[in-house]
């Protein structure tokens, strides 16, 4: 079930300036939160959290050099490369995720871009997951318009492809594909009528200006992404990004979420990777800043996520509804 949306005539802007983002982010905290909550309540049920589940359908051995990622073949993270897994295993895992409370199932492959023969198998997986009554999302790297058309034909709901960071910081993190190539893929996806899931990562050594630059980039895409995942870097060993980079402190993270909510008022903002490092209180603060989606399940792709019981308990104590309860 999708997070409920009300009709609202609140303007959706795609001409944000960095100075405006900085001004929002820098508001006195209670004013920032009040504004985020007002915007949120005009567009969403404030007490509902969307629950998505992830599966790595092809792990590791990726030719890209994303400096945060355990799956890049450029680094020695200890993650074992696998082949594309079987459709029946994917469907069985999706059914378990549904039984555990997920409404969306996101299948991720460690590719620069898919080969056409792989896409046949992916399309088959998407049809199978859809037949379980779940929303479908895939993240396969860069796509051509022809590949997007095939995904659209089988009724794919969402495509995830992140900008990852600000335009200025991008080259410090990834050199094997450009930001423009990512934006081109997002355009093909949007043109085919598939919903866009696009966000990024914080905690990779970037500045506050970079984090806000990433939000401005997202909010000024030709349409706002339908889903905006905000990932806190999940530590993996052996990659260029390391834990000396430092995570944003809790209030800075809540400020960022609230700023994303105000700038992209109709987008679902997902508190994605990195919840394993957050206290219940910080997650509650991020829900008050109006993040309204999470990944559930004990693992994400190669890293850990909070256990189901902890998530269910937290949402119960907060009186929030979700697929979990
Ligand atoms: N290979 C495809 C691609 O990059 O487009 C899809 C999978 S990739 C793992 C999807 C996204 O996960 C990345 O763009 C990045 O934002 C996020 N991600 C990867 N590793 C992460 C980590 N260690 N911590 C937080 N987010 C991460
Ligand atoms: C996204 O923005 N976050 C998810 C999903 N899109 C594919 C991936 C998070 C990966 C975290 C690191 C790992 O588990 O390897
Ligand atoms: Fe490959 Fe995606 Fe990891 Fe980059 S983020 S190395 S493209 S799996």
Characterization of this structure:
- With 325 residues, the protein is an alpha/beta fold.
- It has one domain (21-318): Aldolase class I (TIM Barrel, Alpha-Beta Barrel), CATH 3.20.20.
- It is 38% helix and 13% strand.
- It contains eleven helices and nine strands.
- A nine-stranded parallel β-sheet has the order 5-4-3-2-1-9-8-7-6.
- Strand 3, helix 5 and strand 4 (158-160) form a beta-alpha-beta unit.
- It is globular, with a radius of gyration of 18 Å.
- The site of 6-(5-methyl-2-OXO-imidazolidin-4-yl)-hexanoic acid (DTB) has 17 residues, from strand 2 and strand 7.
- The site of 6-(5-methyl-2-OXO-imidazolidin-4-yl)-hexanoic acid has 17 residues, from strand 2 and strand 7.
Features:
single chain, 325 residues, alpha/beta, TIM Barrel, nine-stranded parallel β-sheet, 11 helices, 9 strands, binds S-adenosylmethionine, binds 6-(5-methyl-2-OXO-imidazolidin-4-yl)-hexanoic acid, binds iron/sulfur cluster
What topology emerges from the helices and strands here?
Elements: H1 18-25, H2 29-43, E1 50-58, H3 87-99, E2 104-109, H4 116-130, E3 135-139, H5 145-153, E4 158-160, H6 167-173, H7 179-191, E5 195-197, E6 200-202, H8 208-219, E7 227-232, H9 250-263, E8 268-271, H10 280-288, E9 293-296, H11 308-317
Parallel strand pairs: 1-2, 1-9, 2-3, 3-4, 4-5, 6-7, 7-8, 8-9
């Amino acid at each position: 079930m999708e997070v409920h949306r009300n009709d609202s005539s609140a303007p959706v802007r795609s001409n944000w300036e960095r100075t405006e983002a900085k001004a929002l982010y820098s508001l006195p905290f209670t004013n920032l939160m009040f504004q985020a909550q007002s915007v949120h309540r005009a567009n969403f049920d404030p007490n509902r959290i969307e629950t998505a589940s992830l599966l790595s359908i092809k792990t590791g051995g990726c030719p890209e050099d994303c400096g945060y990622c355990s799956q890049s073949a450029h680094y020695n993270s200890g993650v074992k490369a696998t082949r594309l897994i079987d459709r029946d295993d994917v469907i069985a895992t999706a059914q378990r995720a549904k039984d555990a409370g997920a409404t969306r199932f996101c299948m991720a492959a460690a590719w620069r871009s898919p080969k056409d023969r792989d896409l046949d198998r992916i399309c088959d997986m998407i049809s199978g997951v859809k037949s379980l009554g779940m929303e479908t999302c895939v993240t396969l790297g860069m796509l051509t318009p022809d590949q997007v058309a095939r995904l659209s034909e089988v009724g794919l709901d969402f495509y995830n492809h992140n900008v990852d960071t600000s335009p200025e910081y991008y080259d410090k993190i990834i050199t094997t594909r450009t930001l423009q190539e990512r934006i081109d893929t997002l355009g093909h996806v949007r043109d085919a009528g598939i919903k866009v899931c696009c966000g990024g990562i914080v905690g990779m050594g970037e500045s506050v200006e970079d984090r806000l630059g990433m939000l401005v980039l997202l909010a000024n895409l030709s349409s706002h992404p339908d889903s905006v995942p905000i990932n806190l870097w999940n530590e993996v060993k052996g990659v260029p990004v390391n834990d000396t980079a430092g995570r944003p402190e809790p209030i800075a993270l809540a400020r960022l979420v609230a700023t994303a909510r105000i700038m992209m008022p109709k987008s679902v903002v997902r508190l994605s990777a990195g919840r394993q490092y957050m206290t219940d209180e910080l997650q509650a603060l991020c829900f008050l800043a109006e993040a309204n989606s999470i990944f559930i399940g004990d693992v994400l792709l190669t890293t850990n996520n909070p256990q189901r019981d902890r998530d269910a308990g937290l949402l119960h104590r907060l009186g929030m509804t979700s697929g979990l309860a």
